[in-house]
Amino acid sequence: MSESQMHLAAFVTAGPGRPGGWRYPASVPGWLSADYYQNIARTLEDGRFDLAFFPDIVSVPDRFGSSTDSQLRNGALGSLRLDPLHVLSSMGAVTRHLGLAATVSTTYAQPFTVARSFASLDHLTAGRAAWNVVTSFQESEAKNFNRDEQFPRERRYARADEFLEVAAKLWDSWDDDALVLDTVEPLFADPAKVHAIEHKGEWFTVQGPLNVPRSPQGYPVIIQAGASAKGKDFAARWSDVIFCSHASLESAQDFYREIKERAAVHGRDPNQVKILPSIAPVVGATTVEAQQKFEQLFDLVPPLGGLSTLAYHLDVDLSTFPLDERLPDVEVPGVEGHYREVREITEREGLTLRELGKQYGGRVEGGFIGTAHEVADGLQEWFSEGACDGFMVQAPYQPGGFEDFTRQVVPELQKRGLFRTEYEGATLRENLGLERSAVGEWSNRIPKSASNVE
Length: 454
Description:
The chain is an alpha/beta fold. The chain has one domain: TIM Barrel (Alpha-Beta Barrel). It contains 15 helices and 14 strands. It has helices at 34-46, 69-74, 84-92, 111-124, 139-142, 153-171, 229-238, 249-265, 287-299, 303-314, 336-349, 353-361, 372-384, 400-415, 428-432, and strands spanning 7-11, 51-54, 99-105, 129-134, 179-182, 187-189, 199-200, 205-206, 221-224, 241-244, 274-279, 282-283, 369-370, 390-394. The strands form 4 sheets. The protein has an 8-stranded parallel β-barrel with strand order 1-2-3-4-9-10-11-14, surrounded by 5 helices. Helix 7 (229-238) crosses helix 8 (249-265) and helix 10 (303-314) packs across helix 12. The model has no long low-confidence stretch (mean pLDDT 91).
């Protein structure tokens, strides 16, 4: 795909997703069925999407009022969430081109397990695996992994840096031609081309080598969504794809410029970092129909469901503030990008906290509501005005939201020459316009603080 064409990823939840979307009459409640996700995968591949992206949470959030009630009652963010790696395996079995991205936290996993999982997925899907790297920040998650409280933000990123370093060493522990399969000699794998890594760092001691050969992409595609200063630096250093969220074209443009500049500071080609802001388009046959659909979806959003999700993202108990007053200035331990987004919306529209909860639960990032032509106009503006390299498409309800987009908006983008009509490459990296990862490629990205201590 040329740089004049955008990339498209789908933000798919292995559960009910948005707090109002699961209530929409056209929503299909098949969240515990492999067929449900396989049908979404086929829809996305028919639409020539680059990849399907699965977020993950390893707890039922209890940040709102120190209770899981608002999450479970409203079918919000983490009320139900299957393990995304298993979901991706089922989707990979019925597709041949669609990239498959799963979220795994560096805060609770171990590098060897994660490196092996994604190398295995990359082999089994012929080079379509992607890893969304996150650092967990909720105490409800920490308490599921033998901790009373979460690591401080700076320590989370220090652990993540070393985690990525170890994963890369493990993926590099097999040379590309180490697997020989000579039945006559015999020589299954050349011992001279499989290497122990002998890593001893602050967080991890790992001998290696990995027991999976080097995979088709070298490394899986790395996705990250850091929005704080530390997070943006981490993303610019490690990520192939950056997922973000913006309340306006202007804020998206500022973020785009900053990340590309940070990538260059780390010695990377900025074109090798793809930035995909989140959108949740609502598409109709007419403008009026699309607006009516949006209003129906919006009416189904319970304010406390949206606030519960926002409380999780900010890591702030929003139940302590008056619902009929504006969100005050608060210190945010969680996702700073979401806080800046909701502050912008609050100030621009004068929303009370109750109204903000409903807005957050039913938000349409970028305001993409209308006919396929109108939505494509908005996407073209963001893409051509230097705000993104493509989009992370959320469905206001599943699976119909993805069907509407692929069957109506994608053909409009293709007609304008803004999106592929066929897949160009054999692997996800190739379809994203990214180079295959060479052995040792990440060595110059490792912060000195993350290198071996012995």
